[in-house]
UniProtKB/TrEMBL annotation:
<keyword id="KW-0812">Transmembrane</keyword>
<keyword id="KW-1133">Transmembrane helix</keyword>
<protein>
    <submittedName>
        <fullName>Uncharacterized protein LOC107221793</fullName>
    </submittedName>
</protein>
<feature type="transmembrane region" description="Helical">
    <location>
        <begin position="161"/>
        <end position="181"/>
    </location>
</feature>
<dbReference type="Pfam" id="PF15860">
    <property type="entry name" value="DUF4728"/>
</dbReference>
<dbReference type="InterPro" id="IPR031720">
    <property type="entry name" value="DUF4728"/>
</dbReference>
<keyword id="KW-0472">Membrane</keyword>
<feature type="transmembrane region" description="Helical">
    <location>
        <begin position="87"/>
        <end position="110"/>
    </location>
</feature>
<feature type="transmembrane region" description="Helical">
    <location>
        <begin position="20"/>
        <end position="42"/>
    </location>
</feature>
<feature type="transmembrane region" description="Helical">
    <location>
        <begin position="122"/>
        <end position="141"/>
    </location>
</feature>
Amino acid sequence: MKMRLLQGCMHIFNLRQGTILIAITQLILSGFTMMLMVLALAHAKEIGELVARDTEDALEREAMEEISPKHMNTKRMDVAHHLATEVLYSLYSGLVITVIHFVSSILLLYGSLMNNRHFMAPWITVMMTEIVVGIMSLFLVQQDCPFIAILGGSADIGERLFVLFITIVNFYIWFVVYSTYKTLEGKNKGLTHEVYFFKKQNATANGSVVGENIKTQNGVSQPIDV
């Protein structure tokens, strides 16, 4: 069954205009998110250093006071250090994903402006991956996976519905870009067939002209030597 493509974007823009608008919006959002990720990483590093320093101080104090290493304060500091490390790794993962999305959005904008579908393929792949991860985060819950937890793994029903809404919106804009991609693919195939037919027609016409010239030359009487 062939998928029916869209003919426009939100019944206001055509596919090309909608794709350009989506590319600009995605570029702005991913750039803003990337800035927030960098700031959050810097803040998380500071918190991690503070927690590590406090943990060392607590261990030294307990060693001096000859307190058992299983003291409640030490356990809390270990849990805080573990949580800070998880948040730091999650932010690093989010930053990498955001950078990839930012680069693919630049390629999408260039491809939509130049009507080059090959530059749209990276964004289509990245966005589909994000959609699949968003859907998985609603059902495959892993409490010890911070990335899945951020997307909705340990969230309540309201946050899950919000993730579902974002996933539906992402799928719509993905389908708009995919429709543009397939439309350009069809146009390129049609143009290739037209060029091939034109070349074949010219070759046939040239062959006919050459054949007629040869026949004309053969039909001319040759001079007789005396």
